[in-house]
Design brief:
This protein is mainly α. The protein has helices at 2-15, 17-41, 44-47, 49-67, 71-120, 126-147, 151-175. Helix 2 packs antiparallel against helix 4 (49-67).
Length: 177
Amino acid sequence: MKKEIRKELEKIQEMTPSGKERAAWREHRDDARAAIDRAERTGAPGYARNYWDEATGLFSRAKEYAAGRSYRKASYLARKAGEAASRAADEAERVRSEKERSARAVLNQVKKSIDAMALKVPSDNRDLLVRKTEFLLEYSDLVSAMSLEQYDEVLEKAPELRKAILLFGSGLDSYGD
């Protein structure tokens, strides 16, 4: 009986202007949460920090206004937080794909350098074979970092590895003579 009365009271409250504002706040809050969750999944805290901070700041302020029963302001801020979170997600996806593309290009250059160097290594020289294997292991580490989306690490270490491979390969040119 009490539950039925409570439901009826809630329905009546939702018909009032403040009840409508509260319902709008809840709807915008849920939309903002979904947008913030999407932004977090796309890596916005790392790739689009400014947009992420804006979205979370607006959402926090919206919750503060809602706690003070200023549902109209809270609803507005929640809507703006959702928009900022969507921008953060879009920017994070753009930055991530750009870094991924750059890292793949650098890894392809390293792979070509390894392939060219591997052809020059004589099969009877154990020291040179060990060094070639070390290069292959370092390349394998970079491929693993790439699969873990550690693009900054790949972009930092791959050029150094490529330079070392090219230097080693140029030494092999004189070794064969």
